[in-house]
Amino acid sequence: MKAEIITIGDEILIGQIIDTNSAWIAEQFNLNGIEIYQITSVHDDRIHILESLSAAHDRVDLVVLTGGLGPTRDDITKHTLCEYFNTALQFHEPTFLHIENLFRNRNLPMGRLNRDQAMVPVECTVLFNRNGTAPGMWFEKGNTIFISLPGVPFEMKDLISNEVLPRLKSSGRTRAICHRTVLTQGIGESALAEKLDNWENNLPPEVKVAYLPGPMAVRLRLSAYGDSEAQLIDQIQKKMDELKPIIGEYIYGYDDDQLAGVVGNLLKERGLTLSVAESCTGGYLSHLITSVPGCSQWYLGSVTAYSNKVKMKVLGVSEEALNKFGAVSGEVACEMAEGIKSALETDYAVATTGIAGPDGGSADKPVGTVWIAVSGPGGVRAYKFVFDKNRGRNIIRSAQSALQHLRRIIIEEN
Amino acid sequence: MKAEIITIGDEILIGQIIDTNSAWIAEQFNLNGIEIYQITSVHDDRIHILESLSAAHDRVDLVVLTGGLGPTRDDITKHTLCEYFNTALQFHEPTFLHIENLFRNRNLPMGRLNRDQAMVPVECTVLFNRNGTAPGMWFEKGNTIFISLPGVPFEMKDLISNEVLPRLKSSGRTRAICHRTVLTQGIGESALAEKLDNWENNLPPEVKVAYLPGPMAVRLRLSAYGDSEAQLIDQIQKKMDELKPIIGEYIYGYDDDQLAGVVGNLLKERGLTLSVAESCTGGYLSHLITSVPGCSQWYLGSVTAYSNKVKMKVLGVSEEALNKFGAVSGEVACEMAEGIKSALETDYAVATTGIAGPDGGSADKPVGTVWIAVSGPGGVRAYKFVFDKNRGRNIIRSAQSALQHLRRIIIEEN
Questions:
Q1: Domain A259-413, CATH
Q2: Which regions of B142-283 does DSSP assign to beta strands (E)?
Q3: Cβ separation A191–B111 shorter than 8 A
Q4: What angle do CA A280, A284, A286 make, to 5 degrees?
């Protein structure tokens, strides 16, 4: 089954919001054997929406529209769908009662505009939106299914999971698909491709490979399409197993593994604990770690020491080191790591200190200069980086680099 | 000038990465008076790319393609562009020398696949990519400009800023445009629209309004298109000024204002300081705060106390409160806020404690239960929330709610 996603709304086209909905839908559909042929973002504009519906109708079996179902005037999707399917709006009592109930539970008065949301096209199946006031709508035209959903992410997600996918699966029109991703670090895209030249030449025709480079890692994605899911999984697993002897030293995880989760598993398996001291990363490193469910088994906590006073008072960094080497130095990074490790009594600790920017740099220590220290049973080590001028990117790269070094040292020492 | 963005690459269509590039390009183009008509994501597939190029050619003046320029086999954009523009590849010496130089600087051997990146279509203007090995390419066909850029975000961004926009502006084909966004809190989309009914009826025809609801705020976007930029700015400002007497109490900021930045400005103006104690937000609240450039003027630091031991030892939370009320309670939240405020000697402190999930809930305190406390010169206050089952969303909403309450209390007390 081939599908297209059409997002409706000016906010994506002026760059005010990022289209995370489409990525989520695409992922869910792929996991369920529905291939996404195209994703299109169009304006809240009648003609533009009508043209996109026609074009998609000619190309695919399934069209999912998101957005433009709100109660305000700029939301024109419902009226445009009526025009496209040559139908009219009618009052839908179950939807009305649900909206009334939502407002009663929230102790809010129900306005005229909300009442209008209970008007739905005659020629559609209403999909119940338990989380919001705009229902989903399911249309069919020729062999193509059209589904219109609200753009609010958690409403849309619930409708896809609990209404759309169950109905599509029971229609029996889906096809088997399998994706796996190998996560590598410490090797560039081209070098990886050259090492894998021979392996790529021996891929079965139904398996495709893509290299996905990122700032901290190169991901290698294997995809297979066919009829038997079990066969595809087996084929891809065989090719993945062949990778270990060729590039095993660079592989740190698979699929959705996050570096913080990989580090957490290493600690958990060995019964070790971790604490963190942050300056330039300002809490982001601790956030990455605490995004891992169950991290309280191996993570005790952190201190963000944005001022020197806090570095001294809470982490026990010496005034001497701050004066002699400055807050952004290997010495202070080491003292921060050792300070938090002893304060929270953990086996490992990692610390960051640097100049995230945009201000605060000097000729000697330009914006982007970052020191990372890892303290563990084998002692303390510090590493220097010079990233770039962008505050947000420097924070992310510093935190990721800290996790990378921590991972390597845990493996080395245990 | 009307433009389209085409992103090339299977990774977006399988939902493996989110298309942040298009949002960034759309924002930059809008700021420069170029309207984005459509954003389309297509496969690394020759026919699909060719069809998208033809369709876009008939609709707009400018087509920007990103992705598919890497050195590996799955990258077919360059060859497909040669086919579309009926041209061939030739060796481009400046690009070759630049690639050679990049590899020399990184102390890496230059591979065969990288050498191929210096082959560029005869019929194009090469755009210098200082940050990477794949050059940008500028083509013209009829009245339409086609620009192909690498998909790596920082390479693409540098090319747009330093090559594409200067060339487009000097071509004189751009049109005036103005967008402003009003950020509101504490009022729903429909209630806001009903309050603004009369105001909307009196909008000049060239000004459009959109309501952008989110989990924590409703944004109101005003857009105007025309010939004179000064006139548009003036018109939109007049309509924005009219909003203050109608919905002023709900407005917390404008345009790209972030709640943490708004809170920071309130503190800075009053010469006050802030510290943070986190449990369920795990560092994310501190991360939001330290994402504000220059925050060290008013932010001293934080403690993430993931274990009770750390809550007691570092924040001075009493064993009694932990035993009697549990770690997730108003009492412990208050003691955390007061503990960090006195440890770091700040004017204000905010604390979070809760059950982010997916595990750890009970009948009494389900997953999503969160307590937030704000401590300031006027004493300490705690607020209870029950969010949902999603760990990531609970972390974000807890941190945003903490900032909201902090903002309200700073205004109230000062």
A1: 3.90.950.20
A2: 144-149, 176-184, 207-213, 218-226, 251-254, 274-278
A3: yes
A4: 110
What does the pLDDT look like over A239-271, one tens digit per residue? 999 999 999 988 999 998 999 999 999 999 999
Beta strands, E only, B199-358: 207-213, 218-226, 251-254, 274-278, 299-305, 348-354
Interaxial angle between packed helices B46-59 and B77-84, expressed in degrees from 0 to 180 and rounded to the nearest 10: 50
First to last CA, chain A: 49
Kindly report the nearest CA distance between residue A284 and chain B, in angstroms.
5
pLDDT attached to residue A108: 77
A72 CB neighbours in chain B (<8 A) are 189-190, 193, 210-211
Give me the amino acid identity at A341. Answer: K
Q: Mutating which of B28, B39, B298, B370 best tests the A interface, going by the most A Cβ atoms within 10 A?
A: B39
pLDDT at A215 over 90: no
Domain range annotation of chain B: 2-171, 176-254, 259-413
Give the H/E segment covering residue B379.
Answer: strand B379-386
Decide if A304 and B304 are in contact by the 8 Å CB cutoff: yes
Contacts of B239 (CB under 8 A, 6+ apart): B199, B203, B207, B222
Beta-bridged to residue A251, according to DSSP, are A184
pLDDT bucket at B237, cuts 50 / 70 / 90: very high
Other Cβ atoms less than 10 A from the Cβ of B99: the count is 22
Nearest alpha carbon to residue A212 among A220, A201, A204, A202: A220
B210 to A181: CB separation less than 8 angstroms, yes or no = no
The topology under which CATH files domain A177-254 is Alpha-Beta Plaits (3.30.70)
Q: Does the global pTM surpass 0.90?
A: no
Q: Which residues of chain B from 228 to 267 reach within 8 Å of chain A, CB to CB?
A: none
Topology of domain B176-254, per CATH? Alpha-Beta Plaits (3.30.70)
Confirm or reject contact between A167 and chain B (CB < 8 A). Answer: no
Q: Provide the strand spans (E) within A110-228.
A: 119-121, 125-127, 136-141, 144-149, 176-184, 207-213, 218-226
**How many residues does this entry show for chain B?**
414
Per-residue pLDDT tens for B71-84?
A: 887 789 999 999 99
Tell me, what's the pLDDT at A225? 79
C-beta atoms of B293 and A359 within 8 A: yes
Smallest Cβ distance to A285: which of B10, B281, B283?
A: B283
Span A2-171 CATH architecture? 3-Layer(aba) Sandwich (3.40)
Tell me if B111 and A190 make a contact (CB, 8 A cut-off).
Answer: yes
Nearest CA of chain B to the CA of A361: how many Å? 12
CA distance A401 to chain B (A): 17
- Contact across the interface for A36 and B14, Cβ inside 8 Å: yes
pLDDT value for B104: 86
Scanning every residue of chain B, which has its alpha carbon at the shortest distance from the alpha carbon of A73? B210
